[in-house]
Amino acid sequence: MAVKTVDFGYQKVSPAEKTARVRGVFDSVAGNYDLMNDLMSGGLHRLWKRFALAQTGLRPGQRALDVASGTGDLGVGLARQVGKEGLAVLTDINREMLSRGRDRLIDRGLATQVRFVIANAECLPFPDRSFDCVTIGFGLRNVTDKPAALAAMRRVLRPGGRLLVLEFSKPTLEALRPAYDVYSFNILPRLGSIVAGDAASYRYLAESIRMHPGQEALAAMMREAGFDDARWHNLAGGIVALHVGVVH
Questions:
Q1: What pLDDT, in 10s, does the model give residues 101-111?
Q2: CATH number of this structure's domain 21-173+201-246, picked from the four choices 3.40.50.1820, 3.30.110.70, 3.40.50.150, 2.160.10.10
């Protein structure tokens, strides 16, 4: 029987090894994660996340879940949208990243409507139909079993709820691709080496983006997971896309 393997960047590894290695990547970069996001995107990641938050449809008093929440950028916005009468749950598989997100929300006075849970996106520990909106920002490509994660996020959504997947995708303009490749495989690892002392993790980042499903393929995966509607918005010429899945 063939041994199942999954992508870790351009390498093929076992599912257990990918999960462990992704955890190691984010253990390594946690201390410089926010700074590197600003440097890598020229601050554009803030606009992309703001756009995603504008699509949640959340109202005060509702419940939101942010998967692979990291340092809590989307979590802050969700907590503000649901207000003190609502609930925002932030999850991550990485304790160090989630700890930094917790500190951020506490510092901003948002702790009363927020809960923090260490959880794997593939097996979310919440009852069916628990949330009005689920978000995952720049985390799906790191998940070992993406169909399982999409199915888990579908399961915890209430009827009328929506999933927002903000992720790097495939540039739609051919003219962008050569410069994007130079930036991804030359400048980005050097930046990671200089700022974070870790070129390898940022080389993995570039490779994981290339191995992630493109716009059409990800929408098809969302429909396969049970979403009644799946569409996307291209941002920055398709370098980033926001996929929206709706549950009827």
A1: 999 999 999 98
A2: 3.40.50.150
